[in-house]
Amino acid sequence: MIAETVCSAAAVAGLGIAVVTAYRKRFLAAARIAAYALVPLGLVMTGVVEWVADTAFSPTAWAGFAVLGGAWALFATTRVVERRRGGTRKERRAAARAARAETVAPAASAPSLGQASRPAPRPTAAPRATGGSEDFSDIEAILKKHGI
């Protein structure tokens, strides 16, 4: 009963503020304040406030919230453990089967491709005579080292 009275008083006060705001020619703000002021009144009229008040003072409801919290904690813990292990049991078995199917025989580890797979060696550049006193041999060595 008290909660309904408080919500109704808040709605009336909010509507009064909306009227004052509209008087100051701020109609958009007044409409927004009126909308917020009507929410508690609507909650009282639908019975939500009474339900919340009954739930808040009910030991059975709080025990139910405790059970829900415990269930959520168990669920979260199992998800953390599952992620650390690498998935569910079915996923781990499927991954193990896939790993066994992809294994390569020891004889097949040698490359079976011939010379065609190797890149052809690049011809070396002939030494150039430079007109100035600049020596680019160290730069050429660096470029060759990086394959440029």
Overview of the structural elements:
It is built from six helices and no strands. The chain has helices at residues 2-23, 27-46, 48-56, 59-85, 89-101, 137-145. Helix 1 (2-23) runs antiparallel to helix 2 (27-46). The longest helix is centred in the middle third of the chain and has 27 residues, at 59-85. It is elongated and about 95 Å long. The mean pLDDT is 81.
Q: How do the strands and helices of this protein lay out in sequence?
A:
Blueprint (H helix, E strand, L loop, with lengths): L1 H22 L3 H20 L1 H9 L2 H27 L3 H13 L35 H9 L3
Helix pairs in contact: 1-2
Low-confidence stretches: none
Order of helices and strands: HHHHHH
Strand content: under 5%
Q: Average pLDDT value?
A: 81
Q: N-to-C terminal Cα separation, in Å? A: 86 Å
Q: So how many helices?
A: 6
Please summarize the sheet with the most strands.
none
Number of strands: 0
- Structural classification: mainly alpha
3D shape:
elongated
Radius of gyration: 39 Å
Can you describe this structure in just a few lines?
Helix content is 68%, strand content 0%. It is mainly α. It starts with a helix and ends with a helix.
List keywords for this structure.
single chain, 148 residues, mainly alpha, 6 helices
